[in-house]
Structure to design on (493 residues):
């Protein structure tokens, strides 16, 4: 019965949480251009993503966008992401349960991963579905190795090779999410009994070495493609030249955001109290648990805590640390945030060890917390991503549907500024952000709306030109003017 309950929770909670977001009608920034490019400029997406070291990402995107065709059909890509996250949560749950975690604790971790802000982002952005696929491949790479790593001989060698190849394929899709393998690695590492054939450190080193071997092979493959002129290398592939300032940046931005777990960072500090409270609570819990282990005198357990708290977080952000680009967005925080979640659950487990706690009360507490986090994830994904993006699309679509296409015309889109956003909270280019606050997205939105009005092709003789800018055009200069600044009218007082 308990197994069935855990399974159904992991299966249905993400569907309920994200259903409204997935099936709202909207696009997210690059969605509009990708819908057009998949038909009009074949292979452009592959070249673009390959220049960032992700050739398979572009191939997956081009295939799905070509089949999607319209903004109204992007919901199926978002649903695909939800399904992948559900599979991720279930696979993680079963892996941890088989490795020594309590079944309910493992289910809490699996569910928590699907509710993280990083998960909220990949669901909200249709173009991010291959990122969710990469997470599942990272789990597959770990599982392939873990099944045979203790046996030795040829079976271990085959498992290591298979896991390495899976990591390589995953890295050719989205490099940073390959490091999600660190989540099951950490979760299994902390509950190992010490009676296994491989020592803890050798087991950990073998898993990490195989994961990094897969990343290295993918990097060499991409560099070979660049060297042979197949793809042009982007400046974003440049390696970090100042490690000291990068580490400082890491401790000031990605690390606090990950430690805050389900609380969003906010560029305008509207949710600063909630963010600070979550951050303090997580850090306090980890410190208290660490102090208890320190006082226990168990050197082997203390070493595990020290490795997990002071070394593995840097490993979880390895790609971001070595890359010159400094992106603190939740799209690259999946591995680090999930690692923090594992350590939080292990801290709770450590603090409860040896204490008489009623099982029903404990599980009920987990359930209450899960319900609260599910509500938060649903609200954030819908109100900070789907709803504001849908409003932008609605304004543009309505303007195009009213436009007179019986004769050639010129259209102008007045791009909004950040001050015209519909939300109080905003974080970088993810939560609460605007798509039309751009030099090129408004034009792509207009073209997507035209395709919505004329899904097959434009009527004979119909021609239009669309320009965009933040300035108001001169009176009479354009037949159609779309004022995206009207977004602010929908903002709550």
């Amino acid at each position: 019965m308990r197994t069935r309950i855990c399974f159904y929770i992991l299966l249905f909670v993400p569907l309920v949480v994200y259903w409204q977001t997935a099936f709202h009608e909207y696009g997210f920034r690059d969605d509009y251009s990708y819908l057009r490019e998949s038909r009009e400029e074949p292979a452009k997406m592959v070249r673009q993503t390959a220049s960032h070291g992700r050739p398979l990402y572009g191939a997956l995107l081009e295939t799905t966008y070509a089949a999607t065709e319209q903004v109204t059909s992007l919901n199926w890509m978002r649903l695909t992401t939800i399904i992948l996250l559900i599979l991720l949560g279930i696979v993680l749950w079963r892996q941890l349960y088989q490795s020594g975690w309590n079944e309910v604790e493992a289910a809490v971790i699996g569910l928590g991963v699907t509710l993280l802000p990083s998960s909220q982002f990949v669901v909200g952005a249709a173009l991010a579905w291959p990122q969710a696929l990469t997470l599942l491949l990272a789990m597959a790479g770990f599982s392939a190795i873990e099944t045979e790593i203790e046996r030795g001989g040829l079976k271990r060698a085959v498992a290591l090779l298979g896991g390495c190849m899976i990591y390589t394929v995953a890295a050719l899709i989205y490099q940073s999410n390959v490091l999600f393998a660190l989540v099951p690695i950490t979760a299994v590492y902390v509950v190992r009994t010490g009676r296994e054939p491989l020592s803890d450190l050798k087991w950990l080193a073998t898993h990490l070495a195989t994961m990094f071997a897969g990343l290295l092979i993918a990097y060499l493959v991409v560099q070979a493609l660049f060297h042979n002129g197949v793809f042009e290398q982007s400046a974003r592939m440049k390696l970090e030249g100042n490690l000291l300032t990068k580490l400082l940046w890491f401790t000031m931005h990605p690390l606090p955001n990950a430690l805050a777990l389900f609380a969003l960072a906010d560029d305008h500090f509207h949710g600063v109290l909630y963010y600070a409270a979550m951050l303090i609570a997580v850090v306090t819990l980890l410190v208290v648990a660490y102090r208890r282990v320190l006082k226990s005198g168990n050197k082997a357990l203390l070493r595990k805590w020290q490795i997990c708290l002071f070394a593995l977080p840097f490993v979880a952000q390895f790609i971001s640390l070595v890359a010159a680009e400094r992106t603190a967005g939740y799209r690259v925080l999946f591995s680090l945030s999930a690692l923090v979640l594992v350590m939080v659950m292990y801290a709770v487990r450590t603090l409860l060890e040896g204490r008489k706690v009623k099982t029903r009360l404990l599980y009920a507490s987990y359930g209450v917390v899960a319900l609260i986090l599910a509500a938060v994830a649903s609200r954030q994904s819908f109100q900070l991503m789907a709803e504001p993006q849908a409003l932008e699309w609605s304004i543009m679509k309505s303007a195009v549907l009213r436009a007179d296409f019986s004769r050639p015309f010129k259209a102008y889109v007045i791009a909004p500024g950040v001050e015209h956003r519909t939300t109080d909270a905003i974080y970088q280019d993810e939560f609460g952000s605007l798509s039309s606050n751009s030099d090129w997205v408004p034009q792509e939105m207009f073209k997507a709306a035209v395709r919505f009005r004329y899904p097959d092709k434009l009527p004979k003789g119909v021609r239009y030109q669309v320009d965009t800018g933040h300035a108001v055009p001169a009176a009479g200069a354009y037949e159609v003017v779309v004022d995206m600044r009207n977004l602010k009218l929908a903002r709550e007082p």
Remarks:
- The longest helix spans residues 359-402.
- Residues 236-355 form one domain.
- The chain has a mean pLDDT of 90.
- The two ends are 48 Å apart (CA to CA).
